TrEMBL record, chain A:
Protein name per Swiss-Prot or TrEMBL: Translation machinery-associated protein 22
GO molecular function terms listed in the Swiss-Prot or TrEMBL record: mRNA binding; translation initiation factor activity
Notes concerning its domains: The SUI1 domain may be involved in RNA binding.
PROSITE patterns cross-referenced by the UniProt entry: SUI1
Predominant subcellular localization, coarse grouping: cytoplasm
Species name: Gloeophyllum trabeum (strain ATCC 11539 / FP-39264 / Madison 617)
UniProtKB/TrEMBL annotation, chain B:
Protein family according to the UniProt entry: Belongs to the TMA20 family.
GO biological process, one term: formation of translation preinitiation complex
CDD domains: MCT1_N, PUA_MCTS-1-like
Compartment annotation: Cytoplasm
PANTHER family documented for this protein: MALIGNANT T-CELL-AMPLIFIED SEQUENCE 1, MCT-1 PROTEIN
Protein name listed in UniProt: Translation machinery-associated protein 20
GO molecular function annotations of the record: RNA binding
Taxonomic lineage of the native organism: Eukaryota, Fungi, Dikarya, Basidiomycota, Agaricomycotina
Keywords: Cytoplasm
InterPro entries named in the record: MCT-1/Tma20, Pre-PUA, PUA, PUA-like_sf, Uncharacterised_CHP00451
Domain of life: Eukaryota
Pfam families: Pre-PUA, PUA
Length: 196, 184
C-alpha cells in the first residue's frame, strides 16, 4: 500500500478512493462476513456486483482466507457467525413485532370549558421525528405545537386546539413525515378535565 | 469512544466555528495528517464553513454540510472519521492486525500486541517506527480498507518487544455508533 503513495506525490489533489458500501450492513463488502446479516449481504452483492461476489466468496478466495487459521478454528468461527446471525434476525423480528403492536394515541384534553389541547403519543415507535412532526402540525393548523414530556416521562406532541380528527386524517393520508403508521394502530381518546 | 453513543441524547449542540479557529484546525490537520494542502482543499474547501458538533465526554465532531469529517477528544489528536479515511487512506500511518483479531475489533475491543506481531499482522519497519500516542489506521489481514482508527499506547518498537497487553487503543471501528451516524 506504500507503493502507489510514492508515485502520486504530485502537487495535484489526490482523488478520493471510491469505496463501495454494502447496502444491507453498510460495511465495505469485504467485511460483510463479520456482520450479522451475512446471507442477506451475499444475496445483495450477488445481484448488484457479481464480479465482486466472485472475488470475495469464490472457492479460491475462501481457501486463501483459511491461510493462517487451522480448520478447527475456522469451523468454530463459522458456527459462531451462524449463531450471531440467527440472534440478530430474532432481534430484528422482535423489533418489528413491537413496532406493529405499538399504538399511537391521539388524546383530546380539556383545558377550559371550551378550550382543548390535543396530545399525540407514540409516534416515535414508527421512526417519526417528533420535532419535525410537531412543526408540521404547527404549520398545518396554524397553532402552537410542541414536544413535551408527559406524566410518565415519555415524549409526546401537544397541539393547541382540538384537532384530533384532523390529525387522525393526516396520519391516515401519510402527510409529510407521518409515514408508516397503520390506521388500525391509531386510537382517539377523550380526556375530560376532572372536576375539583 | 463511540460505544453506546446515541445521537439524540449525547449530542449537546451544534455551532458554527470561528474562522480563526478554522484556520488553526486546518494547520493542525496539515501537521498531524500525511496530507498535502491541495488534498485538504478538496476534502474541506476554503469557502466552506465547518460546524462543531459537541458531544458528551468532551468529544467534538467537526462536520461539513452535515457530514462528519473528523473528531477530537479534549485537545487530543484529530481523527478522521472512518468514511473519510476510506476515501483518503494515506492520511494516517498504517498498522495491520491478523485475521483472528477482526472479530474482537468489530466488537469494540482494544488491539493487543500479539495481533500486530503475528504472521498476519504488520507494523512499520524500525526506520519508520511510530511513537506512542499517535493516531493510526488499523487495517486487517487480507482486507483492502481500514477497519478502524486507533491511538498507539506503546511505540511500535515497544509493541514488538513487549508483545503483551494493549498495543493500540481503538477509537472508532466499523459498525460503531459513529459509523452509524452518517448525517448530523
Amino acid at each position: 500500500m506504500s507503493a502507489e503513495q510514492a508515485t502520486t506525490a504530485a502537487p495535484q489533489p489526490k482523488p478520493p478512493v471510491q469505496v463501495l458500501y454494502c447496502e444491507v450492513c453498510t460495511f465495505p463488502p469485504e467485511y460483510c462476513e463479520f456482520g450479522s446479516r451475512l446471507s442477506k449481504c451475499k444475496e445483495w452483492l450477488k445481484s448488484e456486483h457479481p464480479d465482486l461476489y466472485d472475488r470475495y466468496y469464490s472457492e479460491e478466495a475462501l481457501q486463501s482466507k483459511l491461510g493462517t487459521m487451522s480448520l478447527e478454528q475456522q469451523t468454530k468461527l463459522e458456527q459462531e457467525a451462524a449463531k450471531k446471525e440467527a440472534k440478530a434476525e430474532a432481534k430484528a423480528d422482535a423489533k418489528m413485532k413491537k413496532k406493529m403492536s405499538s399504538q399511537v394515541q391521539i388524546k383530546r384534553i380539556q383545558r377550559q370549558k371550551n378550550k382543548y389541547v390535543t396530545a399525540i403519543h407514540g409516534l416515535e415507535a414508527f421512526d417519526i421525528d417528533l420535532k419535525k412532526a410537531a412543526k408540521l402540525f404547527a404549520q398545518t393548523f396554524a397553532t402552537g405545537a410542541s414536544v413535551t414530556k408527559n406524566a410518565q416521562g415519555l415524549d409526546e406532541i401537544v397541539v393547541q386546539g382540538d384537532v384530533s380528527d384532523e390529525v387522525f386524517d393526516m396520519i391516515r393520508e401519510e402527510k409529510g413525515v407521518l409515514k408508516g403508521v397503520p390506521e388500525s394502530n391509531v386510537e382517539l381518546i377523550e380526556e375530560k378535565k376532572k372536576k375539583s | 469512544m463511540f460505544k453506546k453513543f446515541q445521537p439524540s441524547t449525547d449530542i449537546s449542540g451544534q455551532t458554527a466555528v470561528k474562522s480563526s479557529v478554522q484556520r488553526s484546525l486546518r494547520a493542525g490537520l496539515l501537521s498531524q495528517w500525511k496530507i498535502d494542502p491541495d488534498t485538504l482543499e478538496s476534502i474541506w474547501p476554503k469557502k466552506e464553513n465547518i460546524t462543531l458538533v459537541k458531544c458528551r465526554d468532551h468529544i467534538s465532531i467537526y462536520a461539513l454540510n452535515g457530514e462528519p469529517l473528523f473528531f477530537q477528544h479534549f485537545d487530543g489528536p484529530l481523527y478522521p472519521t472512518l468514511r473519510l479515511l476510506h476515501k483518503y487512506p494515506f492520511i494516517l500511518p498504517v498498522v495491520r492486525v491478523d485475521r483472528g483479531a477482526i472479530r474482537f475489533l468489530l466488537a469494540g475491543a482494544h488491539m493487543m500486541c500479539p495481533g500486530f506481531t503475528s504472521k498476519g499482522g504488520w507494523l512499520p519497519p524500525p526506520e519508520e517506527a511510530l511513537p506512542a500516542g499517535v493516531a493510526v489506521a488499523i487495517h486487517a489481514e487480507g482486507k483492502e480498507h481500514a477497519i478502524g482508527i486507533g491511538i498507539t499506547k506503546l511505540s511500535t518498537e515497544d509493541i514488538k518487544k513487549v508483545n503483551k497487553g494493549v498495543g493500540v487503543e481503538v477509537v472508532t471501528h466499523l459498525g460503531d455508533d459513529l459509523w452509524a451516524l452518517q448525517k448530523v
